[in-house]
Amino acid sequence: MDLDEAPVGASLRILATSGPDDARLRLAELGIRPGEHVIVIQRTSGGGRILGLGDGRIAVDRPTARRIEIEHLTPAAPNRQP
Length: 82
Fold this sequence. Notes:
Elements: E1 11-17, H1 21-30, E2 37-43, E3 49-53, E4 56-60, H2 62-65, E5 68-74
Antiparallel strand pairs: 1-2, 1-5, 2-3, 3-4
């Protein structure tokens, strides 16, 4: 499964990244590398994702999210409306 399919609230493990070497290197510099755990904080209007990684947050656009292979560690929390 790719990151662009992950729902908000999901806890994930990065399995692999694909694409050009410079793009994969930049993701690794940001902490998005195989074995890392992330949480999907928000879905952007363009289909990207905002990820919680350690103490920080990282925004990933949709084309990049499609190049990040993930596995779910826990299902997403139900979306509760007030």
